[in-house]
Amino acid sequence: MLCAPLLLAATASEAAAAHDGSPAAFTALLFVFLLATFIGLGVVTRVSRLLHTPLMSLTNAISAIAVVGSIVIAGQDHPPVITLLGAIALAASMTNIVSGFLITDRMLRMFKKPGGEKRP
Amino acid sequence: MLCAPLLLAATASEAAAAHDGSPAAFTALLFVFLLATFIGLGVVTRVSRLLHTPLMSLTNAISAIAVVGSIVIAGQDHPPVITLLGAIALAASMTNIVSGFLITDRMLRMFKKPGGEKRP
Amino acid sequence: MSFWLIEAAYLVASALFVLSLHWMNDPKTARKGVLAGVVAMTLAVLGTFLNPGIVNWGWIAGALAVGFLIGVPLSWVPLTAVPQRTAVSHAFGGLAAGLVGTAKFYLWQDAPENLTAFRTFAIVAEVILGFLTFTGSLMAAGKLQELKWIPQRPVTYPLQNLTNIGLLGVAVACGIALVFQPVALAYLFPVIVALALAFGVLLIIPIGGADMPTVISLLNSYAGLSAVAMGFVLDNKLLVIAGALDGSSGLILSIIMCRAMNRSFANVLFGAFGQVQQKAGVAETRTAKRETPEGAAQVLEMASQVVIVPGYGMAVAQAQQRVRELYDELTRRKIEVKFAIHPVAGRMPGHMNVLLAEADIPYDKLIEMDDINPEMPQTDVVLVIGANDVVNPAARHDKTSPIYGMPIIDADKARMCLAIKRSMNPGFAGIENELYFADRSYMLFGDAKAVVGDLVKQLQGSSGMH
Amino acid sequence: MSFWLIEAAYLVASALFVLSLHWMNDPKTARKGVLAGVVAMTLAVLGTFLNPGIVNWGWIAGALAVGFLIGVPLSWVPLTAVPQRTAVSHAFGGLAAGLVGTAKFYLWQDAPENLTAFRTFAIVAEVILGFLTFTGSLMAAGKLQELKWIPQRPVTYPLQNLTNIGLLGVAVACGIALVFQPVALAYLFPVIVALALAFGVLLIIPIGGADMPTVISLLNSYAGLSAVAMGFVLDNKLLVIAGALDGSSGLILSIIMCRAMNRSFANVLFGAFGQVQQKAGVAETRTAKRETPEGAAQVLEMASQVVIVPGYGMAVAQAQQRVRELYDELTRRKIEVKFAIHPVAGRMPGHMNVLLAEADIPYDKLIEMDDINPEMPQTDVVLVIGANDVVNPAARHDKTSPIYGMPIIDADKARMCLAIKRSMNPGFAGIENELYFADRSYMLFGDAKAVVGDLVKQLQGSSGMH
Ligand SMILES: NC(=O)c1ccc[n+]([C@@H]2O[C@H](COP(=O)([O-])OP(=O)(O)OC[C@H]3O[C@@H](n4cnc5c(N)ncnc54)[C@H](OP(=O)(O)O)[C@@H]3O)[C@@H](O)[C@H]2O)c1
Ligand SMILES: NC(=O)c1ccc[n+]([C@@H]2O[C@H](COP(=O)([O-])OP(=O)(O)OC[C@H]3O[C@@H](n4cnc5c(N)ncnc54)[C@H](OP(=O)(O)O)[C@@H]3O)[C@@H](O)[C@H]2O)c1
Fold first, then answer.
1. Ligand number nearest to the C-alpha of D355
2. What sign for the dihedral angle of Cα C295, C296, C297, C303?
3. How confident is the model at residue D398 (pLDDT cuts 50, 70, 90)?
4. Is residue C183 helix, strand or coil?
5. Are the beta carbons of A22 and B28 separated by less than 8 Å?
6. Mean pLDDT of C361-378
7. For residues D206 and D196, what is the distance between their CA atoms, to the nearest angstrom?
C-alpha cells in the first residue's frame, strides 16, 4: 500500500539521469561491489565439492549478465555500426545464457541422490 | 595513482547533494540493504555457538552506528533544542559503543584455548 | 575532497564490520573481531567529523564524555546481568534513532522539498521502530532485573493483542498520512511518537520474564532496522549496512532460541508463556530419592566418565568457580569430565559457555547437545547443576507438556543421574521434571554453590590417590 | 514509472542470483539454484526491455535468435569437452563486455560531459579485461581442444614475462592518459584494444595445456570483473553484483586448484609448468609387475573393501559406464566399494564427480580425499583407473619432485594396488610414479574402458554366487 506515494513522488527517469555518473552514484556502486564480493566469497566457498564443475558453468551463465548492457546498446537508436556492435555483444551474451544454464542443468540431473532414483 | 584524476573530476559535495534523496539514491540504498542482509544472515549463522553471548553484545555495539547520525544532528548549526536532541542521541550511542565493545572483549578474554593458557 | 575521505572511511568501516562478525565464528579469532569492530567504529566517527558544517564541537565533546562515563561502568556488570545490560543498551540505541529521526523531521519542516515521500516514510519507520525499542527494551530490562514495580508474570487482559495491533495500526496510518502531507499534517508526528512509546510497553507486558532473552534478540533486530531506516533518511550506506548486519543477527539468535525451545515467534510474543507457571507448584505426590554430598562424592570417584549439565541455577548461584574446582578434583583422578551445553540453558544463548569460560574451563570440554547425547548411555554419572527444563524427558514423549518437542540433553539415559537444586520447584517452563523421580536419579538439595563446594571438600578429604 | 519497474526487477534478480549460488551448496537443492538463475536472468532481460528509448526490436530479436541457435548445440558437448566449452563462453563474455565498452566510448565522444574520470576509467578497465579475456579464453579453449596449430607445450622465449607485463603497462598507461583527455586522445582507444587482444594471446602461450583449467577459472573472474566494470560504466548495480559473484567464484575455484596442486598463481601463470614433460618419457630402468584381468578379477572378488581411484584417464577413455558395471558386480557380491575423489583429479574441479554421476553412481559413494585416506590401511584393494599424479607418493617425501607437497590419495598404503593405464607414460606433471614399482602394486595395461570391460566380463563369468 505504500508504494503508491513513493511512485507519485518520483519524477523518476529525470532524477535518475541527474544522478547518473555523480560521485555519489560512483561510491554507491563501490559499496555494492564490496558487499557483493563478500557474498560471493562466502557463498562459493560453501559450494559442495561434488558440484564444482556445474558451478563453473553456472557462474559462466551468470556472467552473461552483460546481456543487460548489450540490449541497451543494440536497442537504442544509434548509428548502425554501434547497433551492430551491440547486436554482436547481445548474441554472444545470449549464447552464454542458453548454453550455460542448459549444460549446468544437464550435469545436475545426473547426480543421483543416495536413495537410488534420480533427483526429481 | 588513479585516484588523482578521480578527485579532480569530482565537484564532490554539490554532486553528492544533487544526488541526495533522488529515486536512484533510494534504490541504491535498497540494494545495499539487500546485500548487507544476505551477508548478515550468512555470517551470523556461522558464528560459533560458544560465542552467542559475546555476539549479542558485539552486535549491540555495532548497532551504535547511529552515532553517525547523532554527530551530524548535534554538530551542525541548528536551533538549540535540535542540538540537544542530537547530543542526547550522541551520548546514548557513545554509551553503547564503549560498553558494548568493552564487555564483549571482557567475555572473550575468558575463553581459554584448549591448550590451557589464556588467549593472548 | 572531504566527500571522498568520508566515503572511503565509511567503505573501509563497512568491510571491517563484516569481518568483525565473520571472525566471531571461532574463539581463536573472536578478539580480532572486536578489534575490527572498534577500528570500524572509530573510522565511522572520524569520517563523520569531516562533514563540512560540523561546528558544535563543544556539544559533541560533552556528549561523548557523558557516553564514555556511563558506558565504562556499564561494562563492569556481572555476567549474570548481561541480559539486562544488553536490553538497556538496546533502549539507548532505539532512543538515539528515534531522536535523530525527530530532529530531522522538524529540521526539514523549513525545507519541505527534502521531505520526499521515501524520506518521510523512512523517518516514520525510524521513529516508530526507535521509540518502541526504547520503551520495550526498558521494560524487558526491568523484568530481567526483577524490579518489584514491574510485574514478572505476564499481565493479560481481554482483547489485549487486538488493542496492541490496533495501536500500531493507528501509528502506521498516521505515518502514511504524513508521507502524503509531511508539512500540513506535521501535528501527527508527536502522536506517532507517543503511540510508539506506548506500544513498546504494551508489547512486553504480556510476556513472561523468562521469555525476555528471546524478546531482547528481537528488539536487537528492531534496533538494527531503525538504524537502517536512519540510513535511508540520511542517505548513508554505512548506517544501512551496519544496521542490516545487526538486524539479521538479532533475528537469527531469536530464531535459534525459538527452535531450541520448539516454540514459534507468535507463541513467544503473544503466548503469555510464563502464565503456566501459576498452575505449577502443585504439591508433589511422588517423592524423589535424596543423596548426601558424601555419597555423591564417592559415586563420582568411582566413575570413569562424568558429564556435567549446567543450567540457569548455576548462573543464579554463581557456582562456576566451585564447578571448576570439582572439575579439577575429578580430572586429577583421571576421570573424563565433559560439560553438556544446551543451546538455551540459562537465560541467554551461550550463557553457560561464558560462565564456564569465566571459570577457566577450556572450551573444548564444552560439548554441544547434539554431540554429547550419543555418549550418554556410556556415561557413568550425569551431574545436573541447576538445570531443569533442558533435561526434562517429558519433552521427548509427553505430547501434553508445554515443552513437548524441545530437544533436550538425555540425562535420563546415563547409568546414574545426580541433580543439584534447592527444592522440587519447577524451572522456567513451570512443569515438574520426571527425571528426578527416575530410579537412577538422586537429588542433592541446596544452593548449587554450597552443594558443589561440599562435593569438592569431600573429594579433597579423601586422599584421591587411588 | 518504468524506472521503478526496472529497479524492482533488478533488485529481485540480484537476490535470485545470490540464492542461485547459495543453493549449489547441496546436490539436493542445486537444480533449484539453476532455476533461480534462469528466473533472475529473465527478469534482468525483461527489466532492461522496459528502458525508454529501446527501439531496434528487430536487431534485438535477431541477436537473441542467433545466440539461441549457437547456445543450444553448445550445451550438448560431451562432458569431456566441458572445459573447452567453458573457455569458449568466457571468450564470448569478454567479447560482449569489450564491445559494449567500445560502443559506449564512441557514443559519448559526442557528449563528452558523460566521460567523467571514473566513467572513462571504468570503460578502459572494461575494455582491457574484456578483450584480453576474449583472446585469452580462445587460446585456452584451443589448447584444451588440442588443436594442431596451437602449441600444447608452453612456448617460452627470453624476456617473455617482461614483454608481457610491458604490453599491459603500455595499455594501462594509455588508459590513464584517456582518463585525463577522453576526447583529445580518443585515438589511443584502438591502441588499448589492440594491446589487450595481443596480451590475451601472449598470456596463454607460455602456459602448458594441463594448466588450462586453472587459467580458465582465472579468466572466469576476469570476465566477472569486466561485467563489474560495465556496471560502473552504465551505472547499473545488477551488473556489478552479478559480476562480483562471478569474479569471486572464479577466484576461489582457481585458488582451490592451486592449493590442491600445491602451486602458486605465479607458478601457474609464469611457471611454464608443462615444460618438465619434455624431459619426461626417459626410458624406465625398473620394471613394474603386470597382472592379467583374470587375476585382477579374482583378487577383487576376494576383497571385502575396494577403493576405486579414478583419474584423467577414465575421462579420456570415457570408461565411466564400464566402471559403473564393475561397481554393480562387486556390490552384488556384498563387497564395499568406494570412490576416492581427489580435488584435482581429471582436468577440471569436480571432473570425476560429474563423470561418475553421469554413470548413475550415487554421490554418497564419492568420498573426498581427506575422508578416504584414513581408511586406506584397512582397504584390501585400491583400483587406480587412469589416475597418476594424484596417487604419486613422491608428493609426500621427494622434495625434488615438481608435485612435492601436493596432497595425494594414499593408494600406496592399501594392502594391494591395481593400476589401469595404457603404458608407463607419466601423467600431466610429467614425472614417473614410484607407486607402480611398489611390491604391492600390479599394472593392468590397456585402455581404461577396455580393461574395466574385461574385468566386468571375468566377474560375470564366475558365477558370483559365493
Ligand atoms: N538460554 C536462553 O537463551 C533462553 C531464552 C529464553 C528462555 N529460556 C528458557 O530457560 C530455561 C533454561 O533451562 P534451564 O534448565 O537452564 O533452567 P530452568 O529450567 O529455568 O531450571 C533452573 C533450575 O535451577 C534451579 N535453581 C535456581 N536457583 C538455584 C540455585 N541458586 N542453586 C541451585 N539450583 C537453583 C531451580 O530449581 P530450584 O528452584 O528448586 O532450585 C530451577 O529448577 C529453558 O526452559 C529455556 O527454554 C532460555
Ligand atoms: N582437476 C583439475 O582441476 C586440474 C586442473 C589443473 C591441473 N590438473 C592436474 O591434472 C592432473 C590430474 O591427475 P590425474 O591423476 O587425474 O591424471 P594424470 O596425472 O594426468 O594421469 C592420467 C593418467 O591416465 C592415463 N591415461 C590416459 N589416457 C588413458 C586411457 N585412455 N586409458 C587408460 N589410462 C589412460 C595416462 O597414462 P598412460 O598414458 O600410460 O595411459 C596418465 O598417466 C594432476 O596433476 C592435476 O594437478 C588438474
1. 2
2. positive
3. confident
4. coil
5. no
6. 90
7. 17
Residue D346 Cβ < 6 Å to ligand 2: yes
Q: Which of D73, D199, D64, D227 is nearest to D137 (CA)?
A: D199
Rounded Cα gap, residues D9 and B108, in angstroms: 44
What nine digits make up the cell of C130? Answer: 526507535
Strands (E) located in C274-335: 305-310
Sign of CA dihedral B47, B48, B50, B51: negative
With CB atoms and an 8 Å threshold, state whether D11 touches B31: yes
- Cα–Cα separations (whole angstroms), residue A26 to A32, B16, B28, B60: 10, 10, 11, 31
Q: What is the phi/psi pair of residue B118, to 5°?
A: -65, 155
In C, which residues are within 8 Å of B117 by CB distance? Answer: none
Q: Identify the pLDDT of residue A4.
A: 41
Are 3 or more Cβ–Cβ pairs between B and D shorter than 8 Å?
yes
- Report pLDDT for D38: 97
User: CB distance D63–A99 less than 8 Å?
Assistant: no
> What average pLDDT does this structure show over C377-396?
91
Is the ipTM higher than 0.85? The answer is yes
Q: Per-residue confidence at D463, pLDDT binned at 50, 70, 90?
A: low
Residues forming beta bridges with residue A118, ordered by sequence position: A112
Residue D314 confidence class, pLDDT cut points 50, 70, 90: very high
Answer whether A31 sits within 8 Å of C241, measured CB to CB: yes
Q: Does B15 touch chain A (CB under 8 A)?
A: yes
Residue C150 has a pLDDT of 76
Nearest alpha carbon, ligand 1 atom 43: C427
DSSP per-residue codes, C42-62: HHHHHHHHTSTTB--HHHHHH
Cell output for D266: 605465479
Q: What is the mean pLDDT of residues C420-449?
A: 88
| CA pair distance C434, C412, nearest whole angstrom | 9
Q: Annotated catalytic residue: which of C389, C410, C412, C454? A: C389
pLDDT in tens, A1-41: 444 444 333 333 333 444 456 888 889 999 999 999 999 99
Phi–psi pair at C371, nearest 5 degrees = -85, -25
Of all atoms in ligand 2, which is nearest to the CA of residue D390? 15
Confidence at residue A36, expressed as pLDDT on a 0 to 100 scale? 96
* CB < 8 Å to D7, chain B: 23, 27, 30
- Residue C378 vs residues C114, C305, C307, C335, C340: alpha-carbon distances, Å: 69, 8, 10, 14, 14
Q: Is A65's Cβ below 8 Å from some Cβ in D?
A: yes
> Residue C37 to residues A39, B93, C41, D27, D125: CA-CA distances in angstroms?
19, 15, 6, 36, 33
* Range in B71-85, C121-135, C227-241, C344-358 the model is least confident about: C344-358
Q: What is the mean pLDDT of residues C416-432?
A: 87
All residues of chain C having their beta carbon less than 8 Å from the beta carbon of residue A5 are 117, 121, 176, 179-180
Q: Which residues of D are catalytic?
A: 389
Chain B environment of A32 (Cβ under 8 Å): 28, 31-32, 35
Q: Is C263 in the pocket of ligand 1 (CB under 6 A)?
A: no
CB C437 within 8 A of CB C443: no
Cβ distance of B40 and C56 shorter than 8 Å: no
What confidence tens digit (pLDDT) does each residue in C38-72 have?
Answer: 999 999 999 999 998 899 999 999 999 999 999 99
Q: Do chains C and D touch (3 or more CB pairs under 8 A)?
A: no
Select the residue of B3, B95, B118 nearest C74 (Cβ to Cβ): B95
pTM of the predicted model as reported, rounded to 2 decimal places: 0.89
Average pLDDT, chain D: 88
| C389 belongs to the catalytic site | yes
Mean confidence (pLDDT) of chain C: 88
CB-CB under 8 Å, A8 with C117: yes
How close does chain B come to A116, measured CA to CA in Å?
32
Count of A–D CB contacts within 8 Å? 390
